[in-house]
Design goal:
The protein has 335 residues and is of the alpha/beta class. It contains 11 helices and 12 strands. The protein has a 6-stranded parallel β-sheet, sandwiched between helices. α8 links the parallel β8 and β9. α7 crosses α8. The longest helix has 29 residues. The chain is elongated and about 65 Å long. The chain starts with a helix and ends with a helix. 43% of the residues are buried. Bound molecules: alpha-L-arabinofuranose. Alpha-L-arabinofuranose binds next to α2 and β9. Alpha-L-arabinofuranose (AHR) binds next to α2 and β9.
Length: 335
């Protein structure tokens, strides 16, 4: 009997000690770097996303979710700003209050970030910018940036136009822009502007923003088509607006693509965009790569080791011509 009591007593003692030790080590991990964000051993990443305006954006969000999963040692706090900068600023302030370990920002526009970024810096939280860039006089306000070279993407598109549609004959162009003030819109628009100045036979007869959404792309294109019986080229700053524009053209019986009257240039080259190219509906599609999660994680791993990652890094991108694209290109597409 005494032996039994001793065994039970010892077991209770051992269990109590083990729980205490586990709790202590958990607290030690949580307080590494002085953070009290309640995530234990997980690294907390606050991600302020622009919204869910396009297939590209959904793929970008998914890339972050997959990368910063609990199984990979992270806790992701995702905030969708519904395309509003004010919501992004509020999200960053909330991340600061929650004492996240890292902040990732996909900025909706380029301007207006200095104050809130200074607040994150003062709180000692590294801030990584993804996708679009910001316009700041102080590059020390962010740790790193990973994204696309939008201007280069636009230049690739206009070079295709020069080569395939010619620069000596008149081209009437409709230009559907993305969200005004975003790097994606600014870079793609600048490239077209520069090409216009070199090719006097090219004329932009209509230009408006479709805010990177399919619904707005359709609405704007329907208006343009009613005013312009002839459009030779649609320079469309993303796939979703191109899908909306195609719907508007279908409804009015206007033809487009490889065999049609209006040639379509688009950006993103998402799976749906490549499908449209394979079907001959989009003539040329310039890739914008949304799979940025692994690149951000690589930066975080460097930072954790006290290393200095590259300040600016570009994702890999290519482009697709409807007359060259293959089924294999589409099958390889991950987004
Ligand atoms: O910033 C990337 C752009 O934003 C993509 O081209 C577009 O589809 C997205 O919404």
């Amino acid at each position: 009997m005494i032996k039994k009591i001793l065994v039970v007593g010892m077991s209770i003692l051992a269990f109590t000690f083990a729980s205490y030790a586990a709790r202590e080590s958990h607290c030690a991990d949580a307080s590494k770097g002085g953070k009290q964000n309640g995530a234990g051993a997980l690294t907390v990443v606050g991600f302020s996303q622009v919204g869910s305006e396009s297939d590209w954006r959904l793929a970008n969000t998914q890339s972050m979710k997959t990368t910063f999963s609990e199984k990979n040692g992270y806790k992701l706090i995702l905030k969708d700003a519904q395309q509003k900068q004010s919501k992004q600023i509020a999200a960053i302030r909330d991340f600061i209050t929650q004492q996240v370990d890292y902040i990732v920002l996909a900025p909706v526009t380029e301007a207006g970030w200095d104050n809130v970024l200074q607040e994150a810096k003062d709180a000692g939280i590294p801030l990584i910018i993804v996708d679009r860039m910001i316009n700041t006089s102080n590059n020390e306000l962010f740790t790193c940036w990973v994204g696309s070279d939008f201007r280069r993407g636009g230049e690739v598109a206009v070079r295709w136009m020069e080569k395939n549609l010619g620069n000596d004959k008149e081209l009437l162009i409709a230009h559907l822009q993305g969200s005004m003030g975003s790097s994606a819109q600014i870079g793609r628009t600048e490239a077209l502007e520069e090409a216009m100045s070199k090719n006097p036979a090219w004329k932009v007869v209509a230009r408006d923003s479709g805010d990177f959404t399919q619904a707005k792309g359709k609405e704007v294109m329907a208006r343009i088509l009613k005013q312009h019986p002839r459009i030779d080229v649609l320079y469309c700053e993303n796939d979703n607006m191109a899908f909306g524009a195609m719907e508007a053209m279908d409804e009015l019986g206007r033809t487009y693509g490889v065999k049609g009257d209006t040639k379509i240039i688009s950006f993103d080259a998402t799976r749906a965009g490549l499908t449209a190219a394979l079907e001959g509906k989009i003539n040329y599609n310039v890739e914008c790569n949304p799979l940025q999660g692994p690149r951000v994680e690589e930066i975080i791993r460097h930072l954790k080791k006290g290393e200095r990652p590259e300040k600016l890094s570009y994702v890999d991108e290519t482009s697709f011509d409807a007359t060259v694209i293959t089924r294999d290109d589409l099958d390889k597409r991950k987004y």
